[in-house]
Amino acid sequence: MGFGDLKSHAGLQVLNEFLADKSYIEGYVPSQADIAVFEALSGAPPADLYHALRWYNHVKSYEKQASSLPGVKKQLGKYGPVNIEDTTDTSAKETTEDDDDIDLFGSDDEEENEEAKRIREERLAQYESKKSKKPTLIAKSNLLLDVKPWDDETDMAKLEECVRTIEIDGLVWGSSKLVPVGYGIKKFQITCVVEDDKVGTDLLEERITAFEDFVQSMDVAAFNKI
């Protein structure tokens, strides 16, 4: 079980495949599992690995709340697909092969000689070939955004008008409402559907908070893959 070396392109490809039908590493809400895998990356995945990049951008939006997310961090090798050996976990004792008997990453104790390199390259080529034959799906997510005004004197109708003027390829605005938060202040809630490889939560936050005369902050209240 594991993703392999998440600082390598091969490891990121395994992570991308794992997240093709998942929003999170475990369960249906962000947790310490997401933080553990996020911290193992050296940076954002490349744009062509859009499932991993979508997940990375979403988890990054929780950086300030990382310690309060549910769950307990486990060893990195405890997360990920069960058919991939995690070569970054030195406690791993057994190698699990996938359905096609392809060992993507080899053994930590394998002698680095020309024959071993050739075999590993052939296995990686088989993996790439198998992935390239899969149809490309447009990954979409349904978001619920909380947009908070500065005070109870903020013109909420104007705030909504500003938000809905935002046009991005891959973004469709949905229904909205005002929700009381106390002391006469109401927050603006709005739903939207986004194409994950085109629109991230960071981009939405940047565009919405740009209306600084009306908007104090923006948070993602709910995130669900479609």
Automatic annotation (TrEMBL):
InterPro entries reported for this sequence: eEF-1beta-like_sf, EF-1_beta_acid_region_euk, EF1B_bsu/dsu, EF1B_bsu/dsu_GNE, Glutathione-S-Trfase_C-like, Glutathione-S-Trfase_C_sf, Transl_elong_EF1B/ribsomal_bS6, Transl_elong_EF1B_B/D_CS
Swiss-Prot/TrEMBL keywords: Elongation factor, Protein biosynthesis
Any one GO MF annotation of this record: translation elongation factor activity
SMART domains, sorted: EF-1_beta_acid (SM01182), EF1_GNE (SM00888)
Keyword Protein biosynthesis annotated: yes
Cellular component GO terms, alphabetical: cytosol; eukaryotic translation elongation factor 1 complex
Domain named GST C-terminal: residues: 1-90
Oligomeric and partner information: EF-1 is composed of 4 subunits: alpha, beta (alpha subunit of the eEF1B subcomplex), delta (beta subunit of the eEF1B subcomplex), and gamma (gamma subunit of the eEF1B subcomplex). Interacts with elongation factor EEF1A1.
Role description: Catalytic subunit of the guanine nucleotide exchange factor (GEF) (eEF1B subcomplex) of the eukaryotic elongation factor 1 complex (eEF1). Stimulates the exchange of GDP for GTP on elongation factor 1A (eEF1A), probably by displacing GDP from the nucleotide binding pocket in eEF1A.
Protein name as it appears in the record: Elongation factor 1-beta
Organism, scientific name: Leptobrachium leishanense (Leishan spiny toad)
